[in-house]
Structure formats: structure tokens, C-alpha cells
Prior knowledge:
four-stranded antiparallel beta sheet; three-stranded antiparallel beta sheet; globular
Amino acid sequence: xxxxxxxxxxxxxxxxxxxxxIDFAELRDRARHREIDLGGPQRPDFHHLIHVxxxxxxxxxxxxxxEHVIPPGGWLWVRPGQVHQYGALTxxxxxxxxxxxxxxxxxxxxxxxxxxxxxxxxxxxxxxxRHLVAEYADLGAMTLEAHNxxxxxxxxxxxxxxxxxxxxxxxxxxxxxxxxxxxTAVERDFTRTHRVADYAADLGYSSRTLTRATLSATGxxxxxxxxxxxxxxxxxxxxxxxxxxADIARHLGFTTxxxxxxxxxKHDGRTPLAFRAEARGLT
Length: 283
């Protein structure tokens, strides 16, 4: 069993405040200096936008128990707080853009799987990346404030291009709207309360409003969205720590271990310990 490594944002010495662009080789060097195993589970507190070069080998990558392969020319967006692991990084080449939450004013909803832009979108995406990389390297041509402002705008263009490069454009989610506020509240409080009504009361909405907004943004009800977040954290703790099921139950806000086991089995079909054993290859 390998514990999750929490990774804090630490840019290079010459990087602008809040954003960095590195290649796979530099990522390996940084990980070596910080004694981080890139093949082990990591939970960074910042965004990763991983791009595999068009003439490079595909890159296996695991994000919260979902196994992906980023194809040549493909992209994968890993969000802050997600647990991810690199595979065969030494056999591929690519670029990674990392940034702190809030560096860009609005983050489009990230796709859950790798994106391979089609012919029509690839040129625009590639141009957006080249423009961002060129601006990033041109530190000193403008004041730091102007440089950072330019990078924010260019990164937002790249993210918007990628968000619309898939098979269907993502739904529009109003900044500061009910779903955005609900999502933030869930991340903060999902170990405290498992009732949508509590979030609605805290945020000043009705439960029906939160459900409509969450359905529009994710295709799931507010209750399903909340339950999925609890289950995800339970799985992270079961696989990547040796904490007892009863301890995990307390941490996640369940009154008794039995309530946690019943909840987990309802959503996964297995008991927490059966899931742990299977995920670790012990069955």
C-alpha cells in the first residue's frame, strides 16, 4: 500500500506567480528533488493540464481510480484534490501547464477523460498553446503585473479551446451561480453533513434550485453529486491508507460504522473492506 502524497504548489524560480509551464523531463527532475514518486498516488492542490506531443508515445495516467491513456496529441486536465498517478512517463514527451486555483477568473468545466482535438480544432488549440508558451518564456518584456495578466488571458483561451474541442461543448455554468456555490460548499463540508437541505439552507437556496442547477451542470441530482463525492473520498482512504473502516466512517461524518458500510454498499455494491481488498489485488 502506497500513501497519498499531498503536493503543494511550488513553481520554478523564474516562473510567474501562480502559473508554470514545464516539460516531462523537468517534471521528473522536480519530483526527484522533492522526493516524490510520480508513479505513486499524489494529491496536488493545483491544476495540471497534461499534453502529450503529437510525435510522442501515449501516456497512461490514473485519476481517482479511472485508468486513462493520453494519446499522442491528446490532453488531460487533472483538478486540484484529485488523486492521480503517472505511468511510463520516461517513455513519452510532452508539456504540462500547472496553475493555482483562481489564477484564471473562470475555469471551464474540465472533461473527465483525455481530449484529442479533431482536425478542425487541433490548429486552434496548438496555436493557443504556442502563444501561451511564448508569452511564458518572455518574462521581463513587460511588468510582472502585465505579464501575469497576459498569461491569465492566454491560459483561459487555451482552456476554452480545449473545452470545445471534444465531441460536444460543455454546459455553461454561471460563475458564482447555485451549482458553483454548491460545489464549493460540498468540498468544504461533505464530511460534516450529507443532507442537500443543509447546503440549501446555508447557501440561501431551495433544495429544488440546487437540484436543478446540479442536473444542468453535471447530469446528476444534487443528492447524487454529494453522495458521489463522499464515495470518492471513502475509496481514496480505503485504497491509499491503512485506516480502519470505523475510523474512515467517523472521518466522513457517519454516526456508526454500520451506517457507513450500508451507504458504501448501496453505491458500490461491495462492503468497504471488500472494495479495499479487490482494489489492492488481494482477492
